[in-house]
Fold each of these.
Amino acid sequence: MRIYCKICEMELSNELVPLPADIEPVYEDKTDVLPQGFYYTSDERPIENSVGWIYTHLKDIINTVYNLENAGGCCGMDGHAGLNLICMNGHEFATEVSDCWTPHFVKVEPDKVFLMEGEKVLY
Ligand SMILES: [Zn+2]
């Protein structure tokens, strides 16, 4: 599936498939939580207090710029100020966590995007 901006329909991810059940996300500093090309949701693998967040690899998110109002961190983004990624048209949709003292991932807010599997809209 691919992720699109709900407001302007810009493509925001590479093609992603669900993380297989036998691969556990890794929450270690400076480490990618999951391999490239995959995603999982916080419903399937609860972390933090989020509902329906879509977790994916930093390099699988495309056509974005940083929302400087929410950008903060040491060597990268710590993600603590909220949504720090916006589409090229300025619509916020995700938080990048990529700092030297955090695991590395992007979490996408489900209300800000829609997902498509080929021509079919998933939601
Ligand atoms: Zn947009």
Amino acid sequence: MLSWNEAREYIELEEMCELLRKIIRIPSIGSRESEVAYEIIDLLEEEGIKEYKLLESEEGRGNLIIDVKGRSEGFNLLFIGHSDVVPPGEGWSINPFSGEERDGYIYGRGAIDDKSQIVVYTYLAVLLNRLGRDFRGRIRILIAADEELQNPNHGVRYLIKEHPYIFKGIHGAIGELGGLVSIGGRKAQAIIIGEKGSVSHKVMLKGKGRHSSLVGEDDLIKIGSEFLLRLPRKIYFVSETFKNALKDAFGWKRHLIFNRLLSKHLMNNDPILNMYIQALSHITIASTIVRAGEAHNVIPDRMEIIINARIFPEQNESWVRRLIEKTLSRITKNNYDILLQTYVPATLSTTDNLLYKKIVETIREMNYTPLPLIQVGSSDSAWVRSLGIPVYHFFTTTKELEIDRIHGADERIWKKDLLKALEGYYRLITNIQ
Ligand SMILES: [Zn+2]
């Protein structure tokens, strides 16, 4: 394979920007993903890349699969991204669907999450093709629909059910985003190795309703409030895999890892990153819905509380249930039911694996520190990991990841970072030969 410095002569930054602007202009908010795919297909056709498929779960909800085969057998790498976006919301200083450029940035909903990444994936296919496919193995790109809404009938879950061959013979995968992050003043390229899971239980408190003028000790809203006050909201926990990954990356003593991250971090006083670091190092428990009472003069006989917990692979839904039971047992005796509402397990890919090691090597070669992280929300990678495929997210950038703009106002990407991310993926393929 050509070195990156030679290969980059075959790609113009402006052509990548042009595709990004075109697809930002399509407001694919949980719909119209096929229109995004058609823009990409036009380019593939111009480039003579014929191995693609558009798989629609319904009209307009297309998943695009692009295959580029190398000259011989080798590592089969899947790149996962998505073409849908979340609604723009308030507070934009420009039209979120204009793809406008300002001071070296391209702005728009999806500029980071995840349209820039699918542009980089597409140009990785284009570049490898322009260079005569002089590599070993196979690159498969999956640009999925409906990542943000996670409807089981669209997107990746639809593909797993209806077109499972897409995931056959894959040795490892790259998932969405990553980027440059700064923790405790230290800059590093993120490698997301897993995602926290999400468990929701409904707690149903039962009592005897009565007129509010009568005196009694069984006021359900009081009992429910006590439960909410006593329920722990965060419990310090760090996954073993994550500890080991941090140790490998930084050589720190295990027990010092989080002390260091937390103390340095708290000092630098960045509230958003702080919340993220807290979530990364704790099981978190939140109350999200409370329902009780219908009339101003009746003590209700029922109260419903939804508890949503975010957990690591070491916990599951019964772990959360036991925590709720333990808290409840100190307040009330048996007058309750706990019903499981939703459960998405946490997923974590081992770092003792060729693909992970090659990502680390690639990031070091680009003169950055690799920083393994766990994502606190979930993405399509969780479904792909559940098939036994290791998935890591990385997306090399020179500008820091602006977490608050993702799903927020004025989302943007530093134009030159399209090439920086392409460099990361190209170097990875070179290293995995
Ligand atoms: Zn996304």
